[in-house]
């Protein structure tokens, strides 16, 4: 609400061009989430490891991630420059979130048939679009299930996928758990950015049938997200910095400025 009432009106005065205002708003939201993540780490509530963070420092990415906890989007937006995402339509009307959602140009999921076009246009314009194909947080103890909408966006837009696998141990902030229920030990997040997944070969193997290709692509995503994360050499802790020495390549400190 403070961003909506104080920061974004000031940006409207400084930037006349709509695109500049949108990019400035996204930068502010990214900085806010960086502070949020850094503050939680400082309080000892979380620890985290980032693998392959440099892969997210590009333009025009379609980023698909699994969704085990409530703060996954905070991690991703903190890591990704010029990030956009698909959000619940209710957030564009909620008094605490409508300011950032509208100022940043995030895409609401009530766009119907126009949703696919809005997503592909966003990526082609240089935004990095974040989508959780599950549509909601993972239900603990249940098999990972993903909707095919994200795969359809990638296939029909001719977009490769940058997959991000998120793990949290012990599991906390999961679906059905109250956000104020503090775990007995710090939540340890491991975020692994995979290599880009080309979609053209999948569509070609499916004989150009988008429905069949979307099923196959979704199955590949489920397989990737279900695999255990690779062990890391260095854990990011208080006082560490991105790429501090040869043993920390690919790690990132979210709370550090870019």
Q: What can you tell me about this protein's structure?
A:
The chain has 258 residues and is of the alpha/beta class. Helix content is 37%, strand content 14%. It has helices at residues 2-14, 18-42, 72-79, 98-104, 114-124, 149-156, 200-205, 210-226; strands spanning 46-51, 62-65, 83-87, 107-108, 128-131, 161-169, 187-193. β3, α4 (98-104) and β4 form a beta-alpha-beta unit. α1 runs parallel beside α4 and α5 packs across α6 (149-156). The radius of gyration is 18 Å and the shape is globular.
* Amount of beta strand: 5-15%
The sequence of SSEs as H and E is: HHEEHEHEHEHEEHH
By secondary-structure content and strand pairing, the structural class works out as: alpha/beta
Spatial strand arrangement across the major sheet: 1-7-6-2-5-3-4
Residue runs with pLDDT of under 50 for 5 or more positions = 233-250
Q: Tally of extended strands? A: 7
> What composes the largest sheet?
7 strands, mixed
What sort of overall outline do the alpha carbons produce when their principal axes are compared? globular
Tags for this model:
seven-stranded mixed beta sheet; alpha/beta; 258 residues
Question: Topology, please?
Answer:
Layout: H1 2-14, H2 18-42, E1 46-51, E2 62-65, H3 72-79, E3 83-87, H4 98-104, E4 107-108, H5 114-124, E5 128-131, H6 149-156, E6 161-169, E7 187-193, H7 200-205, H8 210-226
Parallel strand pairs: 1-7, 2-5, 2-6, 3-4, 3-5
Antiparallel strand pairs: 6-7
């Amino acid at each position: 609400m403070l961003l909506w009432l104080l920061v974004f009106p000031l940006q409207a005065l400084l930037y006349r061009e709509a695109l500049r205002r949108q990019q400035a708003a996204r930068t502010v939201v990214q900085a806010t989430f960086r502070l949020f993540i850094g503050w939680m780490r400082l309080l000892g509530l979380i620890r985290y490891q980032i693998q392959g963070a440099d892969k997210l420092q590009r333009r025009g990415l379609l980023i698909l991630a699994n969704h085990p906890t409530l703060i996954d989007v905070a991690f991703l937006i903190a890591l990704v420059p010029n990030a956009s995402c698909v959000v619940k339509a209710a957030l564009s009307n909620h008094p605490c979130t409508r300011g950032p959602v509208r100022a940043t140009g995030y895409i609401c999921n009530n766009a119907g048939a126009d949703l696919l076009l809005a997503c592909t246009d966003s990526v082609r314009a240089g935004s990095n679009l974040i989508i959780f194909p599950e549509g909601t947080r993972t239900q603990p103890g249940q098999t990972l299930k993903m909707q095919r909408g994200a795969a359809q966006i990638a296939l029909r837009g001719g977009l490769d996928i940058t997959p991000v696998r998120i793990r949290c141990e012990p599991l906390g902030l999961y679906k059905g758990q109250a956000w104020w229920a503090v775990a007995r030990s710090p939540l340890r997040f491991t975020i692994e950015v995979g290599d880009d997944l080309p979609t053209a070969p999948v569509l070609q193997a499916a004989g150009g049938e988008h429905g069949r290709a979307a099923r196959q692509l979704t199955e590949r995503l489920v397989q990737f997200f279900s695999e255990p994360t690779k062990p890391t050499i260095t854990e990011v802790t208080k006082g560490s910095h991105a790429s501090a020495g040869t043993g920390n390549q690919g790690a990132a400190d979210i709370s550090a400025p870019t």
